Amino acid sequence: MTEANVRNDVDSPLLVLAGPTASGKTSLAVMLAEKLGGEIVSCDSVAVYRLMDIGSAKPSAEERERVSHHCLDLYWPDEACTAGDYARHARAAIAAIRGRGKLPIVAGGTGLYLRALIEGLAPAPPRDEELRERLRERAARRGSGWLHRVLQRLDARAAGLIHANDTPKLIRSIEVTLSARKPQSEQWQEGREALRGYRVMQLALGPEREPLYERINQRAAGMFDRGLVAETDMLRSRFGEDCRALTSLGYLQALAVLRGELTLAEATLAAQQGHRNYAKRQLTWFRGQATMRWLQGFGDDKALQEEALTLARTHVESAALSGSNASLESSVSLESDVLDDSELR
């Protein structure tokens, strides 16, 4: 039995590692998984796509060899993956991990996916194809930035979670808000089916801004060095330039290089800026979650890893103790029922 010592009949421990891009979530998750007998469930809206390896910074082959990873490579790049789709896959993976007596560790930086997994999502209004087509036509004329500005006026909180270049998500958010006559972010609070059967501890990485931005710049440049433009060219040839996944950060700038709209140096700078802006939005989102416990630093820092391990181990042991107490209470109650029954005869 692993250190997690997971029980299926009581609330089981579940760890969440969140934080901005390039903060070291994977490094920390792998360490905790190895120390505590866990498996990792990715929470990344780009890593769910097959063939999108460089631009999504998926765990390396060596990291995936050391620890089992889930919710990677679920869809082809021309297929849609909603937050609800992700939540269903992730909940199934978590249940399977628990069934194997392992500790589930959710690691990633996509806030809406994490919300869908832990808290559930409210039922969404039906699709309005006429409205969608009008929004597509205007976006084609004015650009996706226009959609983002519209959503900012309608629902600033939702707009803060969606990249300005992600046309499909912007259209859906505007559609949901207009169809229900209520901001989508308010609808998230209604009729949700939260994850049950788990004691959740949520940890968030919060490194200082300047070193974080330096890491972001290095990572973005490294993606181009490792062949992001070639990967994007392959995706374009297989799935077309209108493939939704190619609106993701890094891929969008690499596509501009292929079109001759940007030089490689210009694309690198644009990608670096885009990732830094995304990190700001991620930090804003996670700081708005009251249940987050913040760790000040990067996930590959040894002192921070020790702090995280202590917190995680305490959480696992607390869940195990709670389960033992629940079993004892159940046994006492059953024994009492038997005694009561015998007294009646």
Descriptive notes:
This protein has helices at residues 25-36, 61-66, 83-99, 111-118, 129-142, 144-154, 156-159, 167-180, 184-187, 209-225, 228-239, 251-258, 264-287, 302-344, and strands at residues 12-18, 38-43, 69-70, 103-108, 198-205, 292-295. With 345 residues, it is of the alpha/beta class. Among the domains are: 12-121 and 193-215 and 286-317, P-loop containing nucleotide triphosphate hydrolases (Rossmann fold, 3-Layer(aba) Sandwich); 129-187, Histone, subunit A (Orthogonal Bundle). It is globular. Mean pLDDT is 90; it is low at 1-9.
Mean pLDDT over the full residue set? 90
According to CATH, the fold-level topology of the domain at 12-121 and 193-215 and 286-317 is: Rossmann fold
Strand order of the largest sheet: 3-2-4-1-5-6
User: Helix amount, in percent?
Assistant: 55-70%
CATH class of the domain at 12-121 and 193-215 and 286-317: Alpha Beta
| CATH-level-4 superfamily name of the domain at 12-121 and 193-215 and 286-317 | P-loop containing nucleotide triphosphate hydrolases
Radius of gyration: 22 Å
Terminal Cα separation, in Å? Answer: 43 Å
